[in-house]
């Protein structure tokens, strides 16, 4: 199947290249070949690729910088996905769009379901929610996957940052009052592969909104502790509160997502986050 993927060097796009590359006809679009802030240029790229499925794995992900660049975040995270969805609708092509836990306010006490009330607190979260709505408005054949705490052995992410700072012999002070599910990009890619298979089979019951993360949850300090425990590293790691580590963009204090709907529809089991981390570290 011809699959057009927006994104190429990012964590998820890299995983998809490995997981789908041998069995699907993949075309990747990323900078400098395409600029999603130039929405007028998107249609020509999609038409020339003639895809049977489009996956939007690209986004403006600079969460803190989005507070000072909300217009750019909105353009890439909302306007561009809406344009991609419009093009897909005109061509009767399904679209998979990746979203985020930041659409929630983080004040819940139990895992968020897909129909839980949304109330983003950051410019980034607001732009991603606007992207979800833009896709839903114009295209029925959509699968929106909200994920969280994505990391891998490639790209820029929390895991790579922890390893870099530790290698420099610096003390690590990591917040312990923000909870979520660390998600290995390859495990998200494996889940997305199930979506691709369902599209190939012509299933019509799959379209809609889903949550997709590794199972279980922890806090950022617990995530860091597990990283160094699995590696056998001795590091100077201490737990701090969010108040002690202020950031321009507010982070959800609790962003655990319930993935039961995805597991049921696609007959897929999400591995525990500790298992994903162990496999990721083995690849380093």
Name the descriptors.
single chain; about 280 residues; alpha/beta; Rossmann fold; two-stranded parallel ribbon
Looking at CATH, which topology would you report?
Rossmann fold
The first-level CATH class is given as Alpha Beta
Number of helices: 9
Overall SS class? alpha/beta
3D structure, described in words:
The chain is of the alpha/beta class and 284 residues long. It contains 9 helices and 12 strands. Helix content is 39%, strand content 16%. The strands form 4 sheets. A 6-stranded parallel sheet has the order 2-1-3-4-5-10, sandwiched between helices. It is globular.
Write the topology of this structure.
Layout: E1 2-6, H1 11-20, E2 25-29, H2 42-49, E3 53-56, H3 70-91, E4 95-100, H4 123-138, E5 142-147, E6 150-151, H5 158-167, E7 172-175, E8 179-180, E9 183-184, H6 185-200, E10 208-211, E11 218-219, H7 220-231, E12 237-240, H8 260-266, H9 273-283
Parallel strand pairs: 1-2, 1-3, 3-4, 4-5, 5-10, 6-9, 7-12
Antiparallel strand pairs: 8-11
Helix pairs in contact: 1-6, 2-3, 3-4, 7-9
